[in-house]
Design brief:
This protein has 83 residues and is mostly helical. The chain is built from two helices and no strands.
């Protein structure tokens, strides 16, 4: 669309795209309405829920990192034992 809401002819769009310095991707589709958008006013979760989620994530990531470190150390120990 041009500045005043009218449509730009397809031929003009093609000419503008071929004269651009950078590649341009043009998608021409029918009269589609934009998807509906819902504006939410306020928090999506409470502070207590957020704190609980952060603590659970920290504990889970700590356990997983400890297991990965122990496994990696075990593999390095096996490798050192063979040499």
């Amino acid at each position: 669309m041009d500045g005043d809401g009218g449509r730009i002819p397809k031929a003009m769009v093609a000419v503008m795209a071929t004269r651009a310095d950078t590649p341009v991707v043009i998608a021409v589709d029918g009269e589609r309405e934009p998807p509906p958008v819902e504006v939410v006013d306020g928090a999506l979760c409470s502070a207590e829920d957020l704190r609980r989620a952060v603590v659970a994530t920290a504990i889970t990531s700590g356990i997983l990192c400890a297991l990965a470190g122990a496994g990696f150390g075990y593999l390095l120990g096996l490798r050192e034992g063979k040499e």
